[in-house]
What we know:
The protein has eleven helices and five strands, in the order H-H-E-H-E-H-E-H-H-H-H-H-H-E-E-H. By secondary structure, it is of the alpha/beta class. It folds into two domains: 1-30, no CATH class; 34-209, 3-Layer(aba) Sandwich (Beta-carbonic Anhydrase, Chain A), CATH 3.40.1050.10. A five-stranded mixed β-sheet has the order 2-1-3-4-5. Helix 7 crosses helix 9. The longest helix is centred in the C-terminal third of the chain and has 22 residues, at 138-159. The chain is globular, with a radius of gyration of 19 Å. The termini are far apart. The mean pLDDT is 93. It binds cobalt (II) ion. Cobalt (II) ion is lined by residues 40, 42, 65, 96, 99-101.
Amino acid sequence: MLNDLLARNLAWSTQRHAEEPEYFTRLAALQAPEFFWIGCSDSRVPANVIAGLDPGEVFVHRNVANIVHSSDMNLLSSLEFAVDVLQVREIIVCGHYGCGGVRAATDDLSHSLADHWLEPIRRLARAFAVDLGRESDIEAQRDRLAELNVVEGVRRVCETPILQRAWTRGADVRVHGLIYGLKDGRLRDLDCSIGPGHFQTGQSLQEAAR
Length: 210
Ligand code: CO
């Protein structure tokens, strides 16, 4: 199977080079993406593919259930590099319906280390229990929770000193929340975008989510 993968890589690089001989030379010299993507590790949600972007166009961080932990050094390091060095203009937190991480956070089974990782989703489920209870079934509840997790992620990104500093110095960078449908391949805007001057710390998550 590894040989297949290497063969596919060779075919891809050969074809890409044939289409645009300067392609790899140009990308090797400079990385200048407009987007920073925070998404789920799920193999069905690859940022470049679903957003129709080429290599070099999106800087990516992915983890299980696209959770923004305020103390995640991996995410924070990537975010800082994206904002301060690459100077991306758009930051996207992207969740997806049918997320296994959200499902694991809402069942009664033990998931070992993942239970620690997924704690923010459990906390959201408790905080929005009444809202979620209005959904028709458990799948709809989980999909709504996946949306709330994105909105919470957007807020957390905005609360980092990285974004606060960037906005103070006048950087034009915006943070958006999207959700992806595995069943139709469509990205939907959750209308919770935050840009320079639009971040109100008193705004409730529920307001931001609606
Ligand atoms: Co997922």
